[in-house]
């Protein structure tokens, strides 16, 4: 007659023998690679260096910045000026090309001023700067109905400081694709 310890050993050995036959085998054929495995986003577009989470949505602000170039979402002005010079026209031409490629996108052009001047003066100057950029884009075939302008005056400075380098960065018109 077997004792209970011997019965336990026999039961464990039988269980081990039954599970040994259940080991996973490699499949003969692998499933297709997931979308985005080649570096593109889930929709087949996007940054080739990024995954699904890094895909740039066409028509978005990130797409705008990527296409026109970093820092080319804005034009800078001289003191008390709202004139668009040759350098600004090159930047706005790139923006116009992107807007023509994305005809359903609306933009807001934000006008800014440096910290000097009264609040009223800076709001008016910021509006003239935004309108100058919008007028140039309109001359390049972008419908005025796709653009809105807003002046922030000196309320949203790009650079903090009270010197010429900070003021130069704050005298600007920025094209923004609303989210």
Question: Would you give an account of this structure?
Answer:
It is a single chain. By secondary structure, the chain is an alpha+beta fold. 39% of the residues lie in helices and 12% in strands. The protein is built from 5 helices and 4 strands. Strands 1-4-2-3 form a 4-stranded mixed sheet. Strand 2, helix 4 and strand 3 form a beta-alpha-beta unit. The longest helix has 21 residues. It is elongated and about 100 Å long.
Tell me the helix content: 25-40%
What order do the strands of the largest sheet run in, or round the barrel if closed?
1-4-2-3
Largest sheet: 4 strands, mixed
Q: How many DSSP helices?
A: 5
Overall number of strands: 4
Rounded radius of gyration (Å): 31 Å
Main structural class: alpha+beta
Distance between the termini: 81 Å
Overall form: elongated
Helix and strand sequence: HHEHEHEHE
* Strand fraction: 5-15%
Q: Could you list the spans in which at least 5 consecutive residues all have pLDDT below 50?
A: 35-51
- On the 0 to 100 scale, the average pLDDT is 85
Kindly summarize this structure in a few lines.
The protein is of the alpha+beta class. The protein is 39% helix and 12% strand.
């Amino acid at each position: 007659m077997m004792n209970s310890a011997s019965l336990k050993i026999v039961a464990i050995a039988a269980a081990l023998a039954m599970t040994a036959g259940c080991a996973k085998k490699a499949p003969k054929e692998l499933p297709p690679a997931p979308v985005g495995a080649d570096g593109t986003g889930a929709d087949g577009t996007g940054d080739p260096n990024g995954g699904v989470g890094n895909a740039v949505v066409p028509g978005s602000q990130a797409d705008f910045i990527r296409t026109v170039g970093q820092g080319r979402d804005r034009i800078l002005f001289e003191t008390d000026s709202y004139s668009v010079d040759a350098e600004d026209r090159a930047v706005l031409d790139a923006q116009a090309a992107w807007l023509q490629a994305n005809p359903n996108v609306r933009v807001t052009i934000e006008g800014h001023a440096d910290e000097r001047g009264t609040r009223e003066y800076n709001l008016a100057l910021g509006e003239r700067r935004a309108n100058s950029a919008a007028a140039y884009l309109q001359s390049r075939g972008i419908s005025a109905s796709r653009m809105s302008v807003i002046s922030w005056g000196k309320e949203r400075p790009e650079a903090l400081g009270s010197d010429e380098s900070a003021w130069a960065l704050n005298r600007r018109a920025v094209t923004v694709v609303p989210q």
